[in-house]
Amino acid sequence: MRTYFDHEKLQVYQEAIQFISWSSKLSSGIQNRIAAKDQLDRAATSIALNIAEGNGKFAIKDRCRYLEIARGSAFECAACLDVMVAKGIIKPEDILLGKEQLLRIVSMLVKLIQSLTNRVAEEAIGYSAALHEQEQEQEHEKENE
Question: Which domain CATH number covers 28?
Answer without folding.
Answer: 1.20.1440.60
